[in-house]
Amino acid sequence: MKRIIPISSGKGGVGKTTFAINFALALSRHGRTVLVDLDTGTSAIRNAIDTPIERDLYHFFRRNESLNHCVTQLDSKLDPKNEYRNFGFVASPLHLIDEITNFGAAHKARLLTAINSLDADHVMLDMSAGLVANVIDFLPFSNYGILLFTPHLPSATLAASDIVKAILFRKMRLIFSKESPFFETIASGGLDFWKLINDLIDRVEDVYDSSIPNLDAFALDLAQNLGDHPITRTVQQTIDEFRVHYVLNLFNGVDDSFNTAVKPFIDNLTSNVSARCGVTNLGWITKSDVIHRANCNKIPALLTRDETKKKKATDRVTRELDELRLAIGLEPPRKQQKTTPEQLALGQAEPTDHLSRQLDVLKTMFDQKKDDDYSANFDYVSQRALFTMKNRRASEFGDTRIYTPEEMLSSLFAKSNVPTTVDWSELE
Question: Using CA atoms, how far apart are residues 203 and 215, in angstroms rounded to an integer?
Answer without folding.
Answer: 10
